[in-house]
Amino acid sequence: MGPFPTTSRQKRFLLVVVDYFTRWVELFPVHTTTSINIAQILINEVFTRYGMPVYVLSDNGPQFISYLFRNFCETLGIQQKFTANYHPQTNLTERINRTLKPMLAIFAESQPRSWDKEVSKLAFALRTAVNETTGETPAFLMFGRDPKIPLDLIVGEPTEGPPTTTIESIQINEYRNNLIHNLRCTYDLVREHSEVKKISQKTKYDKHTSLRQLNVGDLVWVANVTPQIGGMSINRKLQPKYQGPCRLIEQLGPSTFMVQRISDGVNLGVTNVDRMKRYFEPMSNEQPSTSASDTSETEQESTESGQSHTTQKQADRKRTSSRQRKLPVRYSINSY
Length: 336
Known about the structure:
Elements: E1 13-18, E2 25-30, H1 35-50, E3 55-58, H2 62-65, H3 67-75, E4 79-82, H4 92-110, H5 119-127, H6 138-143, H7 150-155, H8 165-207, E5 219-223, E6 228-229, E7 232-233, E8 242-253, E9 256-261, E10 267-272, E11 276-278, H9 292-318
Parallel strand pairs: 3-4
Antiparallel strand pairs: 1-2, 5-8, 5-11, 6-7, 8-9, 9-10
């Protein structure tokens, strides 16, 4: 995320790492977003602290698709996955960023030289907030308990005397058992809650989405979201809404395709069907030639039409009576 105002420690970007299950957030202010810098942070600050993940889901940024980062994941046995271009619904980090950006903007504006020192407070706020999807705080899902917050320090908690060694051992064992039990119960509830939420979200999505059956080889238009044409910025009102035609060259998922622009062969990358609409070939301007039989039939129809029109005129003319009308004698002038 970034760039932001450069701090006194030369930090301009923010690396956001989110655990997909618990929604636990790690924030790292960085000077550059190179592949080697990100790999070092992940191995030193994340993997050695929480363990190796099964897979890493990221956007299609150059630092993630580079040979160095791919080799880094392969060496550690981590599967690398990518989100569809310009489709943040599949990227949990993008959703966290929508919440984080307004909070970070306040610090960046008021403290442009030291906003990186406030990042830990923002991370704590995200970790202790109840997540809508899981129904729990990321801190509880990660550690089995919620950390103290400033309000707890104000209200206070009941204190107990220092336990003996035997009691302490019993308490530690009891806490361990309770932690395992609570985590198992919570994980089961989270899985159930997440499945219900996914079904609800899918129902809402399908309600406002028309069915689009696309296959490999089809021609489509692709929504144009690039704010530049020919390296020059243009007004979005003047920018074409779609580019194409493009061909679907490979299907990667139920709703994602690898797309290639036909005009110059440029690969547009992984694209979701939400950004596509079917392309139809333009209709030909050539008119079919008229045969002699068609011409004669047309002339015959024209003759019949003329005869019919003449007959109609004669019929209309006959409807007018030729009888002369005479006034009664009593109305005549000579009668007086």
